[in-house]
Structure formats: structure tokens, C-alpha cells
Amino acid sequence: MKVKEVRELSHDEIKTRIDDTRRQLVEMRFALAVRKLESPAKLRNARKSLARLLTIQSEKVRAEGTPEKAPKAEAAPAAKSKKEKAKV
Fold first, then answer.
1. 15-19, 24-28, 71-75, 78-82: lowest mean pLDDT where?
2. CATH architecture of 3-71
């Protein structure tokens, strides 16, 4: 999908495309691991497409001036240091 076409999409359409692309990436990574992926270039193209979608989504949010941010994955809890482990 070209950048011009993506820019014309609504927020909801972009979000659905982002979700679909992420699902495709998971499936492609699995296929690559079991050696069923026809071409590794498809994986690279999907990553670039996802980056393009996320960039345009953030541009639209910034242009509207809304404080809504793109959803981020939650961070894992910080690992305990050796001193903290020794105390427990």
C-alpha cells in the first residue's frame, strides 16, 4: 500500500491495518522458523509496511493536536538486583 493511500484512511482503518499487519508478522515469523516462508523479503516488507502505518498514525495524531498516543506494549517488571535478591 502506498503512502498516499494510507494517508487517506481514517484512524479506525489505520488501526485495523496495523492489527492485521502485526498478525501477519507473527504468522510469517512462525513460518520462517519452521522453514515454510517462501521469501524472507515478505517479512521485511511487512515490517516496513507496519512502520509506515505507525508513522502516519502518529503524524495524524500530532496534526490533530490530540493527546491520544499510539498504544505501547507494557514494560516488563524490572529485574531485581543481586542485593535485593539476597535480602529476600
1. 71-75
2. Orthogonal Bundle (1.10)
